[in-house]
Amino acid sequence: MTRLPLSYPAALLIAVVAVLPVAVLFALSDAPQDLLGQRNLGLLWNTALLTLCTVAGAVLIGVPLALLTAFVRLPLGGVWLVLLAAPLALPSYIGAFTFYAAFGPGGEINNVFGFATPSAQGLVGASVVMALYTYPFVLMTTRSALLNQDASLVNAARTLGLSLPACLWRVVLPRARNGIAAGALLAALYALSDFATPAIMGLDTFTRAIYVEYNAFGLGQAALLSLQLLVVVGLVLFLESRVQVTRERPGRSLVLWPRPWQVGAIGFAVAPICLLALALPLALFSLWLLRDGGGYFDFALAWNSLQASLLAALVAALVALPVAYAAMAGRFGRILERTTYLGFGIPGIVMGTALVYIGLQLSFLYQTLALLVVAYVMRFLPLAVGSIRATAESMDASLVKAARVLGAGRGEVFRRVTLPLTRRGVIAGAALVFLEAMRELPATLLLAPTGFETLATYLWRVYEAGYFGRAAVPGLLLILMSALGLALMLSGEGRARPDFFKDNTA
Amino acid sequence: MLRVSNISVDYGATRVVDDFSLQLAADEIVMLVGPTGCGKTTILQAIAGLVPIATGSVALNDWSASPARPVPTEKRNVGMVFQDFALFPHLSVEQNVAFRLDDPAPAQHWLERLGLAALRRARPERLSGGQKQRVALARALAHGPALMLLDEPLSNLDAALKDSLRWEIRNALKAAGVPAIWVTHDQQEALSVGDRLGILRDGRLQQLDTPQRCYTLPHNRFVAGFLGEASFLPARLRAGRAVTALGEVPASAVDDASGEVELLVRPDDCSMTTAGNAGAGNGEVRSLSYEGGSWLYTVALDDGAAIQVRTSHESRIDSGSRVTLQLTSTHPLAAYANGSAGAPG
Lengths: 506, 345
Prior knowledge:
The complex is a heterodimer of chains A (506) and B (345).
Chain A: H1 8-28, H2 38-71, H3 77-85, H4 92-102, H5 108-113, H6 122-147, H7 151-159, H8 164-175, H9 177-193, H10 196-201, H11 206-215, H12 219-242, H13 260-292, H14 300-329, H15 331-340, H16 342-345, H17 348-361, H18 369-394, H19 397-405, H20 410-439, H21 442-447, H22 455-465, H23 472-490
Helix pairs in contact in A: 1-12, 1-14, 1-15, 1-17, 2-6, 2-9, 4-6, 4-13, 6-9, 7-8, 9-12, 11-12, 12-17, 13-23, 14-15, 14-18, 14-20, 18-20, 19-20, 20-23, 22-23
Chain B: E1 2-11, E2 14-24, E3 29-33, H1 40-48, E4 55-60, E5 63-65, E6 78-81, H2 93-97, H3 105-113, H4 129-142, E7 147-151, H5 159-176, E8 180-184, H6 187-193, E9 196-201, E10 204-209, H7 211-216, H8 221-226, E11 231-238, E12 241-244, E13 247-253, E14 259-265, E15 270-274, E16 283-290, E17 294-301, E18 306-312, E19 322-327, E20 333-337
Helix pairs in contact in B: 3-4, 4-5
């Protein structure tokens, strides 16, 4: 009865492939020289500073919004949550790009309204953009922790004479600490890995430096920087693994009914966030579309994006199946699954660097669509695995036993019970991979075959060339893709990354 | 015929089933009962091959499984009814019942027999608890098992439904002529439905006998207490009779008890009358609870023992009243050696 699970060999192979990029970076990297030199320390300093500022901003925005969406019964409650979570679905380069174009002397705000604004650039610009697009991590993890809390503790504290704000500070928030930490670490991970925001804002972080080295044919240097960045990422991942979200005894959560003027005040306070993170990109792209029209746009780009992302989604779904089933079969399978999660932690620019080198070694892969698809699959595989596992684990374990007692062998159980019941998870996982791949920028920049532009890389070229008006159509298409992704996540099917969408109160 | 010989099951370092043996006659129903965590569900899973056994063997008609030579679950031809029913949510009632059948006739037979014909196209999530239970039973029976295993089949249903379904399941099993092991934690169910009854504690079988003998002559005090209200009364045992403060009755020693013993007294083994003024009678009512058809009293005897007594619902005796208790039992009462506190024999 303790036969080896059938999924293990395939999962083992996939796990080995997942480790390959890191191994390649070691092989490729220049010997470390001057690790404590001024340039290296500068990069580290900038990266750390950006990460810290991002986390601080994300927590300052995310925690109050979590309290708001968890406890306050607002009219149209679900809409507030969707709007406030929406920035999570947008790639931050859309935000960085629009901030860059909108602010400063000669920016679009100056053009349209006539008053000058400070330009968005450097550490401040990058931190503001990053915080605006990462606070939903904190919002969602904190909210889920808050909703787990039983209102009776707050009620008890209030009968003991504590005011409501004091209750929130002394009773509620301390118990949500782990939820806040989980979200903050996700935001930190995002800030470390993001390529486009610091690049557009002109802040020298590891990701930007790797791209610069790559363009200067310094692949060895790029690999060395990549390894240094991976060490920092590894540190954050380690901290993340230490944070355990505690489950409290389920109960009724606190509900507060605001008065009409309070609803107005809340709306007024929340509006700037939605305006900057959501309305600004939409308005800017629409403005450019009206001004310049869309005639320049070659829809072959959209087809390229579609083609590469569809392939990635298909391959990821197929590859994710054995990994997900191995993870459920036993402890060794869990380890294999964890290994494939490596790709999610590897920043896109690092993955790109590693695979460029593999392409140079294996000439049949060099400059092919296949290599790009491999990069997408390796990066986003955990989304598909997580989605399949979430559906498979919610499946009643006695169903498999029931089928076996009725005389079905393992293959038949898989075909007739497990697979049909996890199909939704497979499809949702593939869709998540598709949407992520559509928006992926850094790995695509490095790996796309010559002349193969996607929506995201086109947007990047537009930024580099300074023809902002031409960003309208690809920008709007990318926002549309993001909206679809958000809808998918909220529909409760894609529970891979956003564990925190789990409570379906919306 | 099922023959379970000396099986043990380990979960890691913990032994959850220890040296369990059982043989089943052609269409016999054996009830297994015990407190939560006593290993009763594990025994079913071990017989079905869903958990490995550490020692012993399980044999049924044409196969025999041992730790060294396990037989896969799907080759065992056993039927199982799960506590949570385990109906395949993506299949209709009919598809569930005919899951692995080439010939749909048995499925039709059992659907009709259990009153499910009108629901054959329904999805499991639309069914009520009782209907799900019937579908689960029909599915197991339609596949023609050589043995049925029922894992607390009624525990997720409400009380009124339990009573009727209990008999429906028993009749269906008898009609199919399939032997069955039925696990429950409900003592009423355990005493009423099965042909034989096994009581488990901490993974060990305490007693396996007819329900009547288990109730009146429990092997030990644990079994006595688990199957119903049990009071223990000091007595002197001599030649099949016990002399107590409440009179003399026939008695039977369970362990090697003799001389000074303790007698198992069920609430209906003695009568109670009010004893007028203070000082009269042989005890005082400590508490009483109303059960609908009867009253259950706890009486503190003057010599220290506490006895539970059941009387008809017509008379009520207030707490604190003096009463006279009298043993009225004509069947032998079980006698235990002093201080043999519930330890397994």
